[in-house]
Each structure stands twice: as structure tokens, then as C-alpha cells.
Amino acid sequence: MAYIGKSIESGTFAVLDTSGNTYNGSNTTFSLGTQVGSPAQLLVSHDGVIQKAGTDYSLASGGTQITFSTAPASGASIFIVEISGAVGGPLDSDLNGSELILDADGDTSITADTDDQIDIKVAGTDQITIKDGALSPVTDNDIDLGTSSLEFKDAFFDGTVTTDGLTVSGTPSFADGSIAIADLDIDGGTDIGADIADADLFIIDDGAGGTNRKTTASRIKSYVGGGGLVPITTVAFSSGTELVINNCFSATYLNYMMIISLLVPSSDASLNFRFNVGGTVDSGSNYRYTLAGTQNSSSGTTSQSNGTTDEGRLFYDIDADSEAGASGVFYIHNPYGAFQRKQIHGNTMLQKGTASNTTQYQVATDYHNSTTKNFTGINLFSSGATNWRAGSTSGGYGRVSIFGIVNS
């Protein structure tokens, strides 16, 4: 009889080619020649008798074989029709723990054979398990990635999220939106191999609503503590007559501190200075200095000054004795700034080895010119071209350290 009724709008019916199967009264499992997801997806006729899915037969090998509960007799007449696609509407049925096969070779699937748990299998192994249905918020054991990793690509994320806590590796790039993860360990980074520079960026929560913003290291440096010292350079005196320090002053700081430690000349000498610009020294008659000190050898006070000269002075009459030496702390004001006057003041201590006494000096020296000079360095040299004994940056002997004063 012809089919009566509205024509089927979707769905596919196909008679499967099972001609290669041999029915001998003992075999129960046979090839389907294709893969199906459920026994109910097949219409099976055994010698003209329709078989009941799940009772008279079941599926094997991931849906690629049919297994009869009773072996078909030798010479049995069997045909199988595959019913696939949506017939009359969307799938709305209870799988009741049955495995949903997704790929051609039957080793990738989704199943819920454990109550309140979904297992996603890839290549025959459970890779992702979702438990309890509690994904907001995610708690322990709600999502178990097993031995797998998740890889997000394109605009959202370029990198790999692995299962060690949560480790982000590769080159993650979040093009839009945000991510909030507690205890995030970012792996794969290497040391920058250099000191932090003013232009380096840090991520800061602005505290006004949880917004993260980038800021430069120079801003952090200016803020921390409301002030402080930032190391710029430390150099040792060589055995020559002059120590040239370039590129230690800039527009970053207005004021600087300079510490000179245990300086010893090869013969008695004073320590003088000149400013430089890019290594070119200013030796014009623009310097003045005054040093006033007190000795503990009952010789009273001493002072030494010069009204206008081509060099400033920091130490006066340093003893060359091997047990002697000179140390001092100096503040350098406005060496690079847009003012005509540059000033240095500080305190020094000279040990007189042969005379077994010390002398303490208050130092005041300045530079003044009719035009503004943006000095970038300083030259330290001996009076009378006397050589200095070579010092060390590690031990503190015969060295100079210069610091920028933050918020000065």
C-alpha cells in the first residue's frame, strides 16, 4: 500500500548493506557498515519479524556493529534500515546514561553514566569531567581536566591553560573583557636581564572600582615612601689623577646625593671637581668654595676658601698614609635643572694617619654662570696631578656612589 499522509519533511531512511555478514546459527555480532548512536535508530527485520530494540538486539563497538540476543539461524533473511536525522521535530528524549557517540571511529563521546556528572571522552579516554552542575561559583572538583589541557586561540586567548592549579603559558593575549583568577601562576616568563627602567610598565588596581591600569616604573619610584634614594651609579677610583663620571645627572631628579668612601692619594692632595656635559668638562672660572673644619690634635680649627676659581673643592689636604683616608657625604643641588646656579654642600672626615688625628670639614661650594647649563656628569680630580690609589666598588674602598633623591 502506498504511503498516505503528509510527506516527511526531514530525516533519512537507508537500507544498510549487510551482504558481507554470514549467519551460521552461532555468530551473534555483525557489521553494520556504518555507525549509529542508538539501537532505536535501526529498524531490523529477521525472517520478516521486526525485532525489538534493546531486547532482541543491541549495539557494539561504538555503534558500528549489531549484536543479536539469539544467534540468527543459518541462511536467515535479515535486513536493517537506518533511521537518521530529525523526523518530525527535534530530539527530546531521555538518554538515561547512554553514551552519545560523536566521531567516526566511536572513541569520542559525551555520557552521563554517573548521576550529576558529565564525562567528555576524547580518543577513548575521559578528558573533562563536569560535576555537581555548580559552575557559578566554581568550587573544588566541579571541573576536572584530568590529564588534558585547554587551548584557546584567535582573538580571545593565544596560549595554553594546563591543569597544574592554573598555569598560563605561551603568549596569552586577552583581546577583550577581563579574567579574574585567584592564585594565577604565569609561567614561561624570563628575567629581563637588566635593572627595571623608568619606562617599564606595571599593572595597578586603581582601587576605585576594581579597574586595572598600567603605570610606569618611574611613577611607582616617585610614589613609594613619599621620597627616598634611587641608586644611579657606583664607580671606583682608578690609579690615575682623575675620575670621570658621565650620564649621572638628568631631568629625572632635581637633587642628588654623592658618597665618597675611604679615598687615599699616593701623596698628600685635595680632591677637586668640575661639572661636565656629555663628557665635556666646564673649566671656566665659575666655581667658589669654602671649607671649615676642626681637628682633634689640639691644633684648633682650620678653614680654606677661594672666591672665584676654575674648580670646586670637596676635600682639603688628604693624608697619603696607608692607614689614613677621607670619606664624605655630599648633596648636589640642581646640576641639570634650568637654573644658573649649582650648589654642593656636605660633611667630610679626614684621618691623619701619621699625626693620629682626624679632621672634620663642613663643605660649601657652588657653580654660577650667566647662562643655564644642564650638566650630565662630574669629574673628580686631585690637586697637583696626584694619583689616587685604586679602589673597589665591592669593598667600599676608594669608591663613589651617586643617588637620585626622589620627590626633591
In summary, what is this structure?
This protein is an all-beta fold.
Word description of this protein:
The chain has one helix at about 215-225, and strands at about 10-15, 30, 40-45, 50, 55-60, 65-70, 80-85, 100, 110, 115-120, 125-130, 145, 150, 160, 165-170, 185, 200-205, 210-215, 230-235, 240-245, 255-265, 270-275, 280, 285-295, 300-310, 310-320, 325-335, 340-350, 355-370, 375-380, 400-405. The chain contains one helix and 31 strands. The strands form seven sheets. Strands 19-31-21-27-28-29-24-25 form an eight-stranded antiparallel β-sheet. It has a five-stranded antiparallel β-sheet with strand order 8-9-10-11-12, with no helix packed on it. Helices cover about 0% and strands about 45% of the residues. By secondary structure, it is an all-beta fold. The protein starts with 11 loop residues before the first strand and ends with a strand. The chain has three domains: about 10-85, no CATH class; about 100-185, no CATH class; about 230-405, Jelly Rolls (Sandwich).
Structural key phrases:
single chain; 408 residues; mainly beta; Jelly Rolls; 8-stranded antiparallel β-sheet; 5-stranded antiparallel β-sheet; 1 helix
In the CATH hierarchy, the third-tier topology of the largest domain is known as: Jelly Rolls
Tell how many strands the DSSP assignment holds.
Answer: 31
Classify the secondary structure makeup into a structural class: mainly beta
Number of domains: 3
Strand line-up in the sheet with most strands:
19-31-21-27-28-29-24-25
Query: Beta-sheet strand percentage?
Result: 35-45%
Assign the CATH architecture of the largest domain.
Sandwich
The level-1 CATH class of the largest domain? Mainly Beta
Percent helix: under 10%
Our Rg estimate from Cα atoms comes to 44 Å
